[in-house]
Write a structure and sequence with these properties.
The structure holds two protein chains of two kinds. In chain A, 50% of the residues lie in helices and 12% in strands. Chain A is built from 16 helices and eight strands. In chain A, the strands form three sheets. In chain A, strands 1-2-3 form a three-stranded antiparallel sheet. The radius of gyration of chain A is 22 Å and the shape is globular. In chain B, the strands form three sheets. Chain B has a three-stranded antiparallel sheet, with no helix packed on it. By secondary structure, chain B is of the alpha+beta class. Chain B has helices spanning 2-26, 71-75, 115-119, and strands spanning 53-55, 63-64, 81-89, 96-106, 126-128, 142-144, 151-152. The longest helix of chain B is centred in the N-terminal third of the chain and has 25 residues, at 2-26. Chain B is built from three helices and seven strands, in the order αββαββαβββ. Chain B is elongated. Chain B has two domains: 2-34; 40-152, Alpha-Beta Plaits (2-Layer Sandwich). Classes of the chains: A alpha+beta, B alpha+beta. At the A-B interface, α3, α6 and α7 of A face α1 and α3 of B.
Chain lengths: 374, 158
């Protein structure tokens, strides 16, 4: 009797720690996860942040309001245009500047292009995380066309800094409209290919369905936003509820999925590609004429007070909070980044699953680490 | 029965995916987007607005348009631009005016935000298209943009 008990004990597994990251391909950057594991079952996930902290919020207190914009490129570099827009909108609202319609429409078009580019990259990387290398190349191929559009109009491919408080740095390039139309026509034939290649794939479905489930109640209590929350059926699209720029002029559907698992979040992003294309199509033919920039003072001084503006980036809700004391620098600048809140739900979603499931779950959180650390 | 239909459906989805990759495999030349980069240097042309580095164009008389107003230096978020200036008699107007001695540009610190070019009142600095900036020593990335012996183009006022 005693012998068999010792035998059982010797086969009993013990909990142990394992480091995932900071240099791990599946963490998409320098994120370190402290995993507590029993066998291959995850008991606890503790994210350890700070490996790419650059104190952007503190640097903002040093910089003028024009200079702050280029720092936000470096937060969520996959939706840099939308970050720039958020800061510019906050400053413009505080100054009560009247922004021309042309600027609003161009900002919205480029913002949606940024979202498509970000989702293309995510789709490629998502496939790679679950073991399908092919998707990576197809996602990058289509993103390349958008990057060319950005390079021609904004001058850069990733950190564009195209927005300035008061409008846009330059007017759009003469080829812009034609290139965007070409891209929309091209990309419409590619999304069905994405679905054929990965969405319908039996291995992919087995890897994602029922994995990393986040219920609607938990989504709300963790404060997640963006496609992650909408994958749990929580309607939270800032573009719908607090439309900014030209988003109040367009009609689009908020994409919602009820299941809350990895596959639902995947589907939200794929279906969002269609909505973004429809927004671009509605606006691209009617870019109003007018100025591309409103003259502001060379030294922008915000009035004393607190200002907040939120936008929907490709990852979720980005909030920009400025406290001004009436000088040329902000007294305090705070960014509410979507990645940070989305990461907080990871422990809840991954516990009880395997390590492979954790990678799949993390892929659909679409983490950009510089956005989390700032 | 469902066991076999599962296997059949699984194989079907895999073949659907492989039909996409097979299509591209057969038409690989048509849709190629990669470039033979170091070999295509002669034909490679960047977009007009491409932000490679800040340059200061000089005309054939070795004259530039920089008045030394230092607005770019103030606009730069990282201290990339450093203007060493002096005062001197302008030979065309005869006035005692500020003029640049050295326009120092630290490319290694530049984030390509474009604020300096945006604020320049005389369009003295522009974006250059060169992007091949790998060097063995980072001091090679500190450049003096105004050419030796160059002077302000007459008639340029800020």
């Amino acid at each position: 009797m005693q012998e068999s008990a010792t035998l059982n004990n010797s086969f009993k597994s013990e909990e142990y720690f394992i480091n995932m990251g900071p240099q791990h391909p599946a963490t998409h950057g320098v994120l370190r996860l402290l995993l507590t594991i029993d066998g291959e079952i995850i008991k606890k996930v503790e994210p350890d942040l700070g490996y790419i902290h650059r104190s952007i919020e503190k640097m903002c207190e040093r910089d003028s309001y024009q200079q702050i914009v280029h720092l936000t490129d470096r937060m969520d570099y996959l939706s840099s245009h939308i970050n720039n827009e958020a800061v510019c909108l906050t400053v413009e609202n505080a100054l009560e500047l009247e922004i021309p319609d042309r600027v609003k429409v161009i900002r919205t078009i480029i913002g949606e292009l940024t979202r498509i580019a970000s989702h293309c990259l995510w789709w490629g990387v998502m496939g790679m995380d679950v073991g399908a290398l092919t998707t990576y190349f197809y996602g990058f191929r289509d993103r390349e066309m958008i990057n060319d559009i950005f390079e021609e109009t904004c001058g850069a491919r990733l950190t564009m800094n195209y927005n300035v408080p008061g409008g846009l740095m330059w007017d759009i390039h003469p080829n812009f409209i034609k290139r965007v139309k070409d891209f929309v026509a091209h990309f419409k034939t590619k999304i069905p290919e994405y679905n054929k290649l990965l969405t319908g794939n039996i291995i992919f479905q087995k890897r994602t369905k029922g994995v990393g489930v986040l219920s609607k109640e938990d989504a709300i209590s963790f404060g997640v936003s963006g496609p992650v929350a909408r994958g749990s059926g929580y309607s939270c699209d800032v573009r719908k509820y607090h439309p900014y720029s030209a988003l109040d002029k367009v009609t689009f559907n908020e994409v919602l999925e009820a299941d809350g698992d990895t596959f639902a979040r995947y589907n939200v992003r794929i279906r969002e590609l269609w909505e973004s294309l429809s927004i671009i199509e509605q606006l691209i033919d009617n870019i109003p004429d007018g100025e591309h920039r409103v003259k502001t003072n060379a030294v922008i001084k915000l009035p004393k007070g607190e200002f907040y503006q939120k936008v929907e980036t490709a990852r979720g809700e980005l909030g920009v909070y400025i406290i001004s004391t009436g000088t040329k620098n902000p007294y305090r600048m705070k960014f509410r980044s979507p990645g940070f809140s989305n990461l907080s739900a990871l422990n809840h979603m991954a516990v009880g699953g395997k390590i492979g499931d954790l990678v799949a779950t993390m892929a659909t959180l679409d983490l950009v680490i510089p956005d989390i650390d700032r | 029965m469902s066991y076999f239909s599962n296997i059949f459906n699984g194989i079907k989805t895999l073949l659907t995916g492989m039909s996409i990759t097979g299509k591209y495999f057969l038409n690989s030349r048509k849709g190629a987007i990669t470039q033979q980069y170091p070999d295509n240097r002669d034909t490679l042309k960047m977009f007009d607005r491409f932000r490679g580095e800040v340059i200061m164009p000089h005309d054939e008389n070795n004259e530039h348009a920089c008045t030394g107003c230092q607005k770019c230096e103030i606009a730069c978020p990282n201290g990339t631009i450093e203007i060493i200036w002096d005062r001197g008699i302008d030979e065309y107007t005869g006035k005692n005016k500020k003029k640049i001695d050295k326009f120092v540009y630290h490319l290694s610190m530049c984030t390509m935000c474009g604020l300096c070019i945006d604020v320049c009142p005389t369009d003295a600095i522009k974006w250059g298209q060169n992007f091949e900036n790998s060097v063995y020593d980072r001091t090679a990335l500190t450049r003096v943009l105004n050419k030796p012996g160059s002077k302000l183009r007459p008639g340029v006022e800020d």
